[in-house]
Amino acid sequence: MKKVIFTSCLLLFFMSCSNDKKENSKDLTVDKNQKTQAKNDCSDFLMKRKQENLNISILLDLSDRIDLPNQQVKDSAYILSLAKAFNTHIKGKKLGLLYDKMEVFFEPVPSDPKINQISNQLKISYIKGVSKKEWMPKTLNLYENNPSLIYNLARSSSIKGGYPGSDTWRFFKDHVKDYCIESCRRNILVILTDGYMYHEKSIRNSKNQTSYLTPQYLSKLALNTPNWKEIMEKRNLGFIPANNNLNDLEVLVIGIENQNSKHPYAQDIIETYWYNWLKSMGVKNPKIKNSDLPSNIEKIIFNFILNK
Predict the structure, then answer these.
(1) Smallest Cα–Cα separation from 240: which of 214, 268, 202?
(2) pLDDT single digits (tens) 51-104
(3) How many domains does the chain contain in total?
(4) Cβ atoms within 10 Å, residue 275
(5) How big is the CA angle at 27 (ends 23 and 33), to the nearest 5 degrees?
(6) Which of 55, 146, 196, 299 is the most buried (most CB within 10 A)?
(7) 195 closest CA partner among 208, 177, 222, 213
(8) Helix 132-161, helix 71-91: angle, nearest 10
(9) Cα–Cα distance between 292 and 295 in angstroms, integer?
(10) Which superkingdom (predicted)?
(11) Spatial distance between the Cα atoms of 55 and 47, rounded to a whole number of angstroms
């Protein structure tokens, strides 16, 4: 009898240990899966289709550039082209695969609360269950009319307190990873700017690199010569990198424009500043385009967004 009891106890002990091992093993598997999901920040289903899930961010330069002739008209047309390209992408997706978004940003945030209210209306998100038939025309309507309202309000604010400038450098330093990059989407940042960069709160210098570029500063660089590129490389001229590891971000810059007719190489220099800067931060597929007719830029926007 004692042997039977002893044997039974032993069996219960080993069975208990075996169950503990299975539970521990199960817990480890769950932890491993949880860590994997946390790392990816989205399901395997979405991750497999990452390049099909658009996350488009639009950064508007609301500095004094918007007072240039026809600038508001051009920018509004560019923004509408972005909405058209976004809708073309949405139209080609099945309802159950929708996981796409588009929104507008500024840096610094405009002081007029009405601008922020309007920009909130431009936050478009397509997910499973959203009616494409209902929201595609709404998207076009919002992106056709609201940008002009934003520019009018920004111009009105400038009369009272002057333009605050556009702190694109700070946006890349403090916000681009949080606002524009998601792990389970194809991340695209479109910047509308003339290419000059300046804000009084973000003035930095590091040898021959800066966080700003103004027409006056560009004139002082003595690059008004055919071998300007060689001089830039030799002196290591350019923007100070504001971030790093932006390899999950694509950037399209539209509107580069030379404001100094006496400097024939200025536009090429500005484009080189931007391209080198974006590459130094690890940006994937940077594309820099000058200010041009909206009909010409629309083709570039469609090719970039639709990955043609």
Answers:
(1) 202
(2) 999 999 999 999 989 988 899 999 999 999 999 999 999 999 999 999 999 999
(3) 1
(4) 17
(5) 145
(6) 196
(7) 213
(8) 160
(9) 8
(10) Bacteria
(11) 14
**What CA–CA distance (Å, rounded) separates 173 from 112?**
24
- 195/260 Cα distance (integer angstroms): 13
Beta bridge partners of 55: 101, 187
Phi and psi at 282, nearest 5°, equal 85, 10
58 φ, ψ to 5°? Answer: -120, 120
Residues 6+ apart with CB under 8 A from 1: none
Q: At 194, list the tokens.
A: 């003339």
Instruction: Quickly list H helices, the chain.
Output: 2-40, 44-48, 71-91, 113-121, 132-161, 168-174, 176-180, 215-220, 228-235, 266-280, 294-305
Residue-number span of the structural domain to which 204 is assigned: 54-305
CATH number, residue 284: 3.40.50
Q: Is the dihedral of CA 177, 179, 184, 189 positive or negative?
A: negative
Tell me whether residue 19 is in a domain. no
81 touches 302 (CB < 8 A)? yes
Confirm whether 272 is domain-assigned: yes
Residue 9 lies in a domain: no
pLDDT tens digits for range 281-304: 999 989 999 999 999 999 999 999
CA dist 62 → 15, 155, 165, 197 (Å): 71, 9, 7, 11
Q: Which residue has the tokens 């001229």?
A: 237
C-beta of residue 183 within 8 angstroms of C-beta of residue 42: yes
Query: Strand 209-210 to strand 205-206: parallel, antiparallel, or no bridges (unpaired)?
Result: antiparallel
Is 3 within a domain?
A: no
Dump pLDDT digits (tens) for 170-228. Answer: 999 999 999 999 999 999 999 999 999 999 999 999 999 999 999 999 999 999 999 99
